[in-house]
Amino acid sequence: MIRSAMAYARMMGAAIADPAARHLLGAHAFGSSIKVGDHTEALEAAVGYLLRAQQRGSDAGLGSYHLTQGWGASYPETTGYAIPTLFLAGDRLSRPDLHEAALNAADWLLTIQRPDGGWQGGRIGEDRQSVVFNTAQVVRGLLAAFERTQRQGYLDAAVHAGRWMAGAQDADGAWRAANFMGVARVYDTYVDAPLLHLHAVTGEQSFRAAAIRNLEWVLGQQGRNGWFANADNTIRHNDRPITHTLAYTMDGLLACARITGDESWAQAALKAALPLAERFLAEGRLRGRYDADWQGSEHPILTGCAQMAIVWSHAAELMHDQRYRTAAEGMVNWLASVQGLGRVGPEEAVGALPGSFPLWGRYEKFAFPNWGTKYFVDALLCAGHDMAR
């Protein structure tokens, strides 16, 4: 605790000492008169950050910018699921450079696949073990690259990964030993969707069987009020999971429903999506964490906020319920206003979403995680009825 407080104090001191960072801190502390502009402008700024996240590193993966530490190493996981986003944003904006960036990322991911079929957790250079969740997100990217190019190498790597993931599953349908923290978590619905997609492309039954087993396990973790147990990416705070992992869970369920046609997965997602939509509509923001009674705590986590805008957009299309559409539109506009605050900060971070609001909140403090901006791009695309998956 003391060490963490000292590190926090050092980062805050370093930020205050830098004029551009200090201006950004002030904007987060006191607000800004900057109005939400055209969503296309927000989209262009956000993809600009994603391109910098790729260009500033020593490889074709995506890193993240930290207010006091600069650019970090690439994340294979988030690089993987940024690929479909770059393709779709390139389509929307008529920008072939985004398609090129996506394929460069996919080619790089092929070079770092592990012999077992998986991809490492964390950042490049940390040399962590292969992780099921992270691997599934790379599979998302490789399948998108395959569908765009029909290059067999992308599909072959995805199949190798899928077989490893299916083989690593426990008998009850959860993943533990080959996953983050070695514990079972419901946000592995975000693993199930690419496995089902892989089955749809290849017809290999083991992929579908593994996904369905996990989905059935996940439904057993949901309470009557829609809240999910075992949803956090920590052990200490599992009683009040972050919106980021709750949204992973819901988005995964909705995607699985679209792929399989089984509405039970969608209904499970909606049971959780509606309480959060009602919280947002009543309070104007989402907190960072929610307990079993949907009571919130901590500063907003902007990645989770962007993801919930995506979930609500899908829910609005599915249910024709104006509450979801209003929540999605309100959230996208609020995120765009937060993005706009970055115009007074360091140029490298312009267009990005910080981890938390204000940016000194607990989640990814003083940082601009590439995955938060990726989901903001997806939310903007959803707002334009181009559903990013």
Explained architecture:
- With 389 residues, this protein is mainly α.
- It has one domain: Glycosyltransferase, CATH 1.50.10.
- The protein is 60% helix and 3% strand.
- The chain has helices at residues 2-17, 19-30, 39-55, 76-93, 96-111, 132-149, 152-167, 189-202, 205-219, 243-260, 263-283, 302-319, 322-341, 370-383; strands spanning 65-66, 70-71, 289-290, 296-297, 367-368.
- The strands form two sheets. A three-stranded antiparallel β-sheet has the order 2-1-5.
- Helix 7 crosses helix 9 and helix 13 packs across helix 14.
Topology summary:
Blueprint: H1 2-17, H2 19-30, H3 39-55, E1 65-66, E2 70-71, H4 76-93, H5 96-111, H6 132-149, H7 152-167, H8 189-202, H9 205-219, H10 243-260, H11 263-283, E3 289-290, E4 296-297, H12 302-319, H13 322-341, E5 367-368, H14 370-383
Antiparallel strand pairs: 1-2, 1-5, 3-4
Strand content: under 5%
CATH class designation: Mainly Alpha
Based on secondary structure, the structural category is mainly alpha
Query: What general outline do the C-alpha atoms trace?
Result: globular
Tally of distinct domains:
1
CATH topology: Glycosyltransferase
What's the story with the biggest beta sheet?
3 strands, antiparallel
Assembly state: single chain
Order of helices and strands: HHHEEHHHHHHHHEEHHEH
Mean pLDDT, as a whole number?
Answer: 95
CATH architecture: Alpha/alpha barrel
Instruction: For the record, give the distance between the C-alpha atoms at the N and C termini, rounded to a whole number.
Output: 39 Å
| Share of residues in helices | 55-70%
User: What Rg, in angstroms, do the CA atoms define?
Assistant: 20 Å
**pLDDT < 50 runs, ≥5 residues:** none
Separate helix tally: 14
Give the tally of β-strands.
5
What topology, given as strand order, has the largest sheet? 2-1-5
